[in-house]
Amino acid sequence: MISLLLHACCGPCSLEPVRLLRAEGFEPTICWTNPNIQPASEWERRLSTLRDWAANVAHVDVVVAGDDRAAWERAVAPAGF
Fold first, then answer.
1. What does the mean pLDDT of the chain come to?
2. Whole-angstrom Cα distance, residue 1 to residue 5?
């Protein structure tokens, strides 16, 4: 198996990509870094759902990367978001 880091915004949207990647010989690890998901309660809900799904359904590891919301907001503010 070839290791692959796959970004995800939630668990359910990762189901099919993980299945297809495994069928192609990859072993994905999910990377969670989503400072764009707000409010914080939604961010936490999605991460919790992802962790549950990863552990109980997909049997895939999850890496939680940095989540600098202030940097995200500074980066997108000039574009009017």
1. 92
2. 13
Total number of domains constituting the chain:
1
- Residues 17, 28 contacting (CB under 8 angstroms): yes
Domain of 33, in residue numbers: 2-79
**Helix, coil or strand: residue 24:** coil
Q: How far is CA 72 from CA 7, 11, 20, 37, in A?
A: 17, 22, 31, 10
- pLDDT band for 32, please (50, 70, 90 cuts): very high
Q: Which amino acid is at 21?
A: L
**pTM to 2 decimal places:** 0.83
Long-range CB contacts for residues 71-76, cutoff 8 Å, separation at least 24: 71/35, 72/35, 72/36, 76/36
